[in-house]
Fold this protein.
Amino acid sequence: MDKKIKRRIRSFLLIAAGTGIMAFAIKSAYDSIGLVTGGFTGIGIMVRRLTTDLVDGGIPIWITNLVLDIPLLLVALKLKGRRFLGWTLVATLLLSFWLGVIPQYDLSGGDFLLAAVYGGVLMGTGVGLVLSAQVATGGTDLIATLLHMKLRSYSIAQILQVIDGAIILAGIYVCGVRASLYAVFAVYITSRVSDLITEGGKFSKAVYIISDQYEQIADAVLHQMNRGTTLLPAVGMYQKEQRNMLFCIVSKKEVVILKEHIKNIDVHAFVIVTDAREVLGEGFLEY
């Protein structure tokens, strides 16, 4: 099978699975208890609750989602072209489809904390799968992207935070303060879980070492830890002194061993340890 076709099938499966999980989280964790977590689906939750007296059960979330998304997609089509929309249109339609066919179920049993945790984990998983296909699901993400064309001084993430924040604040009026506070907690869990899926769970440590004994330290890292190091030239700006700095990547467990080697070789070494969210290549994650 052609690689291009395989990529398309993989993208579709990721989008289908991701939007399905998102829809389940929205209907069974958020809507069942009234957590408005932003986005067009958050507006849909509010609209459904506000229209229960007009329509039996209120206007379904999938209808609100489609009504808001369709004109937005038309605007994006005009401003950005068909190539920009691509899979975003598919993701938008699939999300509305799942919202329409998946039955509602009270996953948390009326407990706000459980709803925030269950919903956050499920939503984060769904969002992570969709993002892994390099696709957005439309909605406020698409609004932020389009507004960014006019508001260049602000990032898409900043614009999105303002829009979703306004929706969550509006949720206070419809669902109450308590639900909105738990909604913020759910959003935090969603972001952490989606990051975990898109970036992988195998975090590493980046270590910078400044020492006059850099050759001995590099030798210890290479032969005793089986890790490579990179020598970087550096200049200390206080005395304008030429120094050499080692840079290496190790696992979270290995950083303790590395610091022990450094201490045994040069107790005066200057060491910086920082997180490396994703490391691709030999000895770490494969592409």
